[in-house]
Amino acid sequence: MQKMLPFLAVLIGGYLMVLLLATVFQRHLIYFPSRAPEEEMLELARSAGCRPWRNESGEIIGWRNVDSRREARGRILILHGNAGVALNRTHYLEALELVDAGRSWEVILFEYPGFGARSGHPGEKALRAAGAEAIDQLMREDSRPVYLLGESIGSGPACALASDFDAIAGVVLVTPFSSLVDVAVRQYRWLPVRRLLRDRYDNIKALAGYQRPVVMIIAGHDEMTPPELGRRLHASLSGPSLFIEQPEARHNTIDLSPTAPWWKEASEFLLGDDEQ
Predict the structure, then answer these.
(1) What are the boundaries of each domain within the chain?
(2) What CATH number should be reported for the domain whose range is 31-275?
(3) Helices marked H in the chain
(4) pLDDT value of residue 29
(5) Torsions phi, psi for 128 (to 5 deg)
(6) Dihedral pair phi/psi, residue 150, rounded to 5°
(7) Burial status of residue 176 (CB atoms within 10 A of its CB: 0-12, 13-18, 19 or more)
(8) Which stretch, 6-15, 65-74, 121-130, has highest mean pLDDT?
(9) What is the distance between the alpha carbons of residues 168 and 45, in angstroms, rounded to a whole number?
(10) Is 108:65 a contact under the CB 8 Å cutoff?
(11) pLDDT reported for residue 71
(12) Contact (CB, 8 A) for 101 and 69
């Protein structure tokens, strides 16, 4: 037994070191931002047909189509996944602005703190605060309804902001989860993530009592956010909802193409009588 003690000490010490590293660097395991100077992002935006959307301090907080649909019935703020930048999601612009020949949606690509050229660091509180600033700014612009689309990790701030703002008219959730804790428990079974995790994104709690339309799209073979977590979130909803499952899709192969038929179905469900 005494011969085993040094081995056990090394094993325990190594595990404690892993716990320490996981605690200190956990956000590096959650967020994978691409960083670039503003000039580079502006050039990328020009090539994508987008223009910068700035806050009152002049900082770029997102992107709009050069030909923004000011006559569109609704505005939808896109909260993207945990990697890349907002400008990597121009397919949402293409898809939603094709619906009803551009008369239904004006699409705004929201950028997170610490992504692209935006200052700051990503985290649950930071994304929620930045999202609140963006929604406040949209609401000051005009009276058209504001909707949210949250993709993967973006479902977290989307659900939280829907809870924070009574004016959010509806939510689209692409490959969402019940909570980030539920995701982490499955990916790191050997770590006490329920105690360690700082960014928790409890989407079930956030949407409890939310009575506006919710559209949910999940991938049946999602290896990143298990589909049962999306189904659990959907089952918890008490308001009107539209559930779409793509049974053969994986996390990064879900059909978000502009011609996917579910875009029109989702749009009609969200806008309801406003489409008439």
Answers:
(1) 31-275
(2) 3.40.50.1820
(3) 4-24, 38-47, 90-96, 124-141, 155-164, 180-187, 193-196, 203-207, 227-236, 262-271
(4) 82
(5) -65, -45
(6) -110, 125
(7) buried
(8) 121-130
(9) 27
(10) no
(11) 81
(12) no
| Burial environment of residue 51 by CB neighbours within 10 A (0 to 12, 13 to 18, 19 or more) | middle
Per-position b or e across 184-216, b if 16+ CB within 10 A of its CB: beeeeeebebeeebebbbbbbebbeebebbbbb
Q: Which two tokens stand for residue 103?
A: 């008369």
What is the rounded CA–CA span in Å between residue 275 and residue 40?
38
Confidence of residue 151 (pLDDT cuts 50, 70, 90): very high
C-alpha to C-alpha distances, 180 to 20, 38, 117, nearest whole angstrom: 20, 31, 26
Are 267 and 242 spatial neighbours (Cβ–Cβ below 8 Å)? no
Query: What one-character-per-residue DSSP string does 97-149 give?
Result: TTGGGGTSEEEEEE--TTSBT--S---HHHHHHHHHHHHHHHHHH-SS-EEEE
Task: State the average pLDDT over residues 6-33.
Answer: 68
Q: Assign residue 89 a region: left if phi > 0, alpha if psi is -120 to 50, beta otherwise?
A: alpha
CA distance 61 to 134: 8
CB count in 10 Å sphere of residue 256: 19
DSSP state of 48: T
